[in-house]
Design a protein that fits this description.
This protein is 38% helix and 17% strand. The chain has 3 helices and 2 strands, in the order ααβαβ. A two-stranded parallel ribbon has the order 1-2. β1, α3 and β2 form a beta-alpha-beta unit. The longest helix has 15 residues. The protein is elongated, with a radius of gyration of 15 Å.
Length: 96
Amino acid sequence: KYGVKMDDAILAEEKHQPIYKELVDNYSPQYIAGGATQNSIRVAQWIMTANGKPGQSAYMGCVGKDEFGQQLEECAAADGVKVHYMKDESTPTGTC
């Protein structure tokens, strides 16, 4: 349907964008705040929370002013990470 073959790894192009809505509409995805650095901050916060120090980490970055940016912010906050995102109205939040 989107020109993707079984077991392919691709970089999403404009033609692949509708797949994200299809996945949300037809399945129950679990959203996790991601990106290498943000994942490291989340793990560090998990360790600090386990040692009685919740809410001690922060992350700064940029997201699109869109649904995925809002979801990313909510997920990071739920993990105890204080996020400060610049919100770009012209560029969508990265997804994978």
